[in-house]
From TrEMBL:
Organism: Streptomyces albipurpureus
SUPFAM superfamilies: S-adenosyl-L-methionine-dependent methyltransferases
Keywords assigned by UniProt, alphabetized: Methyltransferase, Transferase
Protein name, per record: Class I SAM-dependent methyltransferase
Domain Methyltransferase type: 58-151
Amino acid sequence: MDCGRELEGHQAGLPPGVQEYYADHAEVLAERYESLTFEAVYQELLSLLPALPARAADIGAGTGRDAAALTRLGYSVTAVEPVSEMREAAALRHQAVSVWLGDALPKLSLLEGTFDLLLLSAVWMHLTTDERPRAMARLSELLAPGGRMVVTLRHGPPPRDRRMFDVSALETVELALRYGLRLVYQGGGGDRLGRDEVHWSQLVFEKTESGIQV
């Protein structure tokens, strides 16, 4: 085990058993992620993105595919990715994304201000039952009134080589509501990488003007 790498993960708030996997497989995962375009993955959601000008944060940005796409669309983007190897892979592919933070849920202690758009693609399922309420509270703080948050959830047997949970859409919607985030869209479908045992939910939330817990 790379003790320095594991320490960095704990400092960033990343759950143990997650960072090592993504660090050790960064290049392979980069090729996999980059084989799909942002437009293909989110084609049903593009009309739901906040109007420009807008500030966006891609949380768990990986190799920067989505952050780069949002930048091209005109958003002011902060990419958040705790795994340094993934950030290095992103730097080779997406120089247009200029703001990167080595931070992670549930704390996201390095993010400042509020955002009109939060994107969490294949991230939420790494959090434990205890971490998810704290993470949702923090995301609600970061989201501007009227802002939107996009969450994708992986469903199916969790892989054995990293920490992951099959978190239901219903649980996520109910938790978001507690922190002033109402559901405005729910969709999903099969796995675009062709894995028969995997399917996805896509959720879009909007922060109520007050943001008060329900």
